[in-house]
Amino acid sequence: MTLENYSELPSIIPVLKEKELIYPFMIIPIFLEDKNDIIAVQKAINDHSLLFVSINDEVGTYGTIGTIIRKVTLPEGRVKILFQGLVRGKILEITDKNPTLALIDKVESHTDVDKKELSALLETLKEHIITLSELSPFFPKDFIKIIDNNSDADRIIDIIASSLKLPTEKGYELFKETDTHKRLVKLIHFILEEIESIKLKNELSKKVMEQVQEANREHLLKQQLKLIQQELGITNELEEEIREYYEKLEELKPYMPENAYKEIKKQIDRLSRMHPDSAEATTTQNYIEWALEIPFGKYAKEEFSIDELQERLDKDHYGLKKPKERIVEYFAAKELAKKRNNEFSGAILCFVGPPGVGKTSLANSIAKSLDRKLVRIALGGLEDVNELRGHRRTYIGAMPGRIAQGIINAKEMNPVMVLDEIDKIARYRGDPTAVLLEILDPEQNKEFRDLYLNFDLDLSKVLFIATANDPSTIPAPLKDRMEMIFVGSYTPQEKFEIAKRYLIPQEMKKHSLKKSEVSISDKALMEIIDKYTKEAGVRNLRRVIAKIMRKAALEIIKGKEKVRISIKNLEEFLEKGYFGIESVDKKDKIGVVNGLAWTPVGGDVLKVEAVKYRGRGQVILTGQLGDVMKESAHIAYTLIKVLIDTKKIKIKERTKEPIYSKYNIHIHVPEGAIPKDGPSAGITMATAIASLFAEKKVKADIAMTGEITLTGDVLPIGGLKEKLIAAYKAKIKKVLIPQKNYERDLDDIPDEVKNGLEIVPVKRIEEVLAHSLT
Questions:
Q1: 98-117 confidence digits (pLDDT tens)
Q2: Which one from 54, 489, 680, 691 is the annotated catalytic residue?
Q3: Where in this chain does the record put each Lon proteolytic domain (predicted)?
Q4: Active site residue 512
Q5: Is the pLDDT reported for residue 334 higher than 60?
Q6: What's 110-234's CATH class?
Q7: Which site from 51, 313, 319, 588 is most exposed, i.e. has the minimal number of CB atoms within 10 Å?
Q8: What percent of the chain has pLDDT above 70?
Q9: What pLDDT is recorded for position 217?
Q10: What is the largest CA-CA distance in the chain?
């Protein structure tokens, strides 16, 4: 169908939306996937109507009216049409959306300019096209013939505009213009812009080529200059550096291993033969500078005083009696071995305890008393073995491992090196544990090989100290190399003393406050410790004190002479968010027992709740319990059934069948979102179940910890100190603990806690029930 036999424009015809502009003279394939577009095409074919194609389908949009020459169905529901543009058109009104049908009218160009002026513009256009075709090989000179052989200016404009590949916005601006004169002027303007753009690109390309040629010329001249300098005996900058490397190497030669000397000299020799601007020269120079930074032969003074160590530990740390004693004993044995010319083969010290109790600061005190540098290597999350051993130089960005870097930073071969969080190493690339075993073994660390340096380092003089939160996660071979020194939780009184002696003065200094400007009453400080912190150490306590100091600094800067913090105005400085261990419920209840738990951040009071309801003797466990606690629950249930059968637990309810066969038991440990596990809840669960069946209340002021066997024996547990401190904070009166823990661990419990609790040792479940049930 042609436009001539379709004379009823404006008329309603289908609209097709396309990303690219289609000009009236074009015959172009269009690929369709959208369902509405395919329906629109089919309607045009069925109605023998024209099709309107535009970049938009809104009222006022210009586009091309044309006809469908051919339609081809493609796989996956797609359609291809061959579209012939006939004339420009415009949407006057949208009549339907699915598919889009619109009232379309054709658009014809007009101009008030006479033919002479149009001819002059066409000549100008021809000149610019010749210039453009000379600059760009992609714009053929054939367009000159099109201008000469065509009398329709609008057709000339459309053909040239389609070949310019203008941006859609500019192309549409030219497309919708109806004044032929203005269209020609705009087209000439766009061609001039294109000419300038191509000239700029060509100029930039020329400059780039000149720079490349200049770089090649400069390299050639440098080579010639190097030869001239060699003839004249003049050395360049790199040669001067190489000479300095040789001198420094010879100075260190008496103190370094032979393999280190050979490797470094080999690399300096290689560097001297390389071009100074090559990438390999830079890499080799980096290696030489790293290697020559190793402090071969430099050691801190070996003078040592036990009294000085004891004084430093007492000065820097309040409490921690047992850990400080063990540190002093360790170094006393080491010093005695040195005086008697014996080799000391003591295990590596590993400080184990919750966060914030002073593990790293103990190592810092040791370093100060020994007058050695402290190097801290954080192992938390370490998963690549090369982080410790170094990367091979074949890798981009390779550098020495953390151990070698620590020695370089310390500038001495015998620093105190703290391996922090040794319990948190991971495995991803290689096994960091294997490298740590080599580092910590006195028999192997004399010849520790760093892969980057590619020579041996003597680590035998380095004093290694490890820290950990949870010793159970330390690999067994690694644990065998270390001696665990447990740094336990602080009691409220110890925290009080630490805050007064260390934290408050330190935070005052950090916040530029004077002692005369801020005061915290003893009662307010105890309130902060009891209600605003829940931790084994004092790290969070420091944060709370820092918060008070910031607010105090604000008051001072506003003109207040002195800030006093008391129990009355404490909430003005701190919010009401209490995080302390709450006092236990004072009301006796059936099936509710206070258990004691150890966590990586200290002890806690853990309630165990149990209820019974009609059923068939099933046990339901909730509260995110681990496998160990689940087994404890089943053992406790079996044990209580045995005690019921043997009449050791008296049952009030009279039944022919055993009472436990008539009821289901549900045991729950509150705070179900927190995972819980550990071998210390057996007697707690057994007491809760016995309370249900005997219908006796459990005393609210009693707490307990201990594992149970099927025969009723109470087994010892770990973390007793943290658990008893938690019970003390929760204002528990009596605590039941295993007999073996009472005999073995009671000396480690602070006097403050022992005096505030009635600690009762138990060996059998019968004793537990006698103490806990009313």
A1: 888 999 998 888 888 888 88
A2: 680
A3: 587-774
A4: no
A5: yes
A6: mainly alpha
A7: 588
A8: 92
A9: 75
A10: 126
